[in-house]
Specification:
Blueprint (H helix, E strand, L loop, with lengths): L19 E4 L4 E4 L5 E6 L10 H19 L3 E8 L4 H10 L3 H18 L7 E4 L4 H13 L3 E3 L8 E3 L15 H10 L15 E6 L14 E3 L1 H13 L3 E7 L3 H16 L5 E7 L2 E3 L2 E2 L10 H6 L4 H9 L7 E3 L1 H18 L5 H16 L4 H14 L8 H15 L5
Parallel strand pairs: 3-4, 3-10, 4-5, 10-11, 12-14
Antiparallel strand pairs: 1-2, 6-7, 7-8, 8-9, 12-13
The structure holds zinc ion (ZN).
The site of zinc ion has 5 residues, from helix 7.
Length: about 425
């Protein structure tokens, strides 16, 4: 599947600062240690109501990760999927009386256009589940062959499940106890009560064909992929069996990332799929979690159509730390616009190239520390406050600042 155009990323002044990120599995901030190329997989959308600011904030978080790695001279192999075959998509299409394929296509187009507007660096591999059915079949077969998966005893619907006990370290990613896992599994699309499962927590790998649902042939009967195995297959087939960063929203910590890792690890015989499991908090509007059912979604496309700049939207999202559940409001956007205007005014009095390089180095340092965007914004605020209202800046210094803030934050001062 094609992704979206790549924005230009200028060279950034200063010297590299090794990136550290919080790892959900180890529950601490520690350095990312890629080779020449960092492998990053971020779970993509299920295309049914996928274009609100909450989603955009997650992808902006990993855009920052990407930018810090690039600024350090590390190439990034970025892979993202699209769950274009799954229950929520079918349910929404049926409710709205549209074909699920058409719904998917239109939502993917909207998502691409939001990402392009926000100048988010695109994945090199943007991969739909439908494109990778064969890859899922191979991995499910591998799990069946090595005893990590089984077919339920149900002649009509012989679904395939992964055994939750297939890997010794299951649970390491989320660190949840069994009771919490059971609760979240039931809440987030799991099927603990499915008769014939060996353990209520066993996760679906292959859903045997049901009337009215799309299906594909496989050695274990016609059906379609489960959600978690889709990401295991797409990620490891492109990034290798162990890669640097697995990312997504905090609602993916369990069950999705736990099972994606477990399926990959059981299939490939590795201990740990990703070096870091990185999760972005949820976005609320005026203190209430954004959701379609509550009708309080904020759409990037509407904000830009109303004349708000993508750079201001970025600054609004970056005003608080990515791991927090964050708020969005008109006041936050207005404050971001004011900040952007102040920074732009300050550019006319940018100071010397030494001042500029120092500023960019401090921004590098803040962002390398688990993407401390509030700290980075404060550093720039302090520089802006210290500039002289009479102007008198060196154009070279101004350009260093423009390029540095664009390269590191994706925010353009001109
Ligand atoms: Zn995923």
């Amino acid at each position: 599947m094609h992704s979206w155009p790549t924005p230009s990323v200028p060279d950034v002044a200063g010297t590299p600062v090794a990136l550290s990120l919080h790892d959900t599995a180890d529950q601490r901030i520690r350095p990312v240690t890629p080779g020449a190329t960092a492998g990053m997989y971020v779970c993509g959308i299920t295309p049914y109501d996928s274009t609100h600011l909450g989603h955009a904030a997650t992808y902006l978080t990993f855009d920052l990760v990407y930018r810090q790695l690039l600024a350090n001279g590390t190439a990034v192999h970025y892979v993202q999927n699209i769950t274009d075959v799954d229950d929520p998509l079918f349910e929404r299409a049926e409710r709205d009386g549209v074909d699920w394929r058409d719904l998917g296509t239109s939502q993917i187009d909207l998502f691409r256009s939001d990402m392009e507007t926000l100048r988010v660096l695109p994945p090199q591999d943007y991969i739909g589940a439908i494109e990778t059915i064969d890859e899922v079949i191979d991995l499910v077969q591998r799990l069946l062959d090595n005893g990590a998966a089984y077919v339920v005893d149900d002649a009509e619907h012989p679904d395939v499940y992964a055994s939750v006990n297939a890997t010794e370290n299951f649970g390491y990613e989320s660190n949840y106890d069994r009771e919490t896992m059971a609760e979240l599994f039931a809440e987030r699309g799991g099927d603990p009560d499915r008769p014939g499962k060996r353990d209520p927590l066993d996760a679906l790998l292959w859903r045997a064909r049901r009337d009215g649902e799309p299906s594909w042939d496989s050695p274990f009967g016609p059906g379609r992929p489960g959600w978690h195995i889709e990401c295991s297959a797409i990620a490891t087939n492109r990034l290798g069996t162990s890669f640097d960063i697995q990312g997504g929203g905090s609602d993916l910590m369990f069950p999705h990332h736990e099972f994606s890792a477990a399926h990959a690890e059981a299939g490939h015989g590795v201990d740990r799929m990703a070096g870091h499991y990185v999760h972005a908090g949820m976005i609320a509007l005026d203190g209430v979690k954004m959701s379609k059912s509550l009708g309080n979604l904020v759409f990037v496309s509407k904000l830009t159509a109303a004349g708000h700049e993508p750079d201001a939207i970025r600054l609004g999202v970056f005003a608080s730390h990515y791991r927090q559940d964050r708020d969005w409001s008109e006041e936050i956007l207005a404050a971001a616009e004011k900040r952007l205007a102040t920074w732009r005014r300050a550019l006319a009095a940018a100071g010397t190239t030494t001042t500029a390089t120092d500023l960019i180095q401090q921004v590098r340092e803040r962002l390398a520390d688990d993407l401390d965007t509030p700290g980075a914004l404060q550093v720039v605020d302090e520089w802006a406050a210290a500039t002289s209202p009479e102007g008198g800046g060196d154009p070279t210094a101004a350009q260093l600042i423009v390029d540095g803030l664009d390269g590191l934050l994706g925010v353009r001062l001109r």
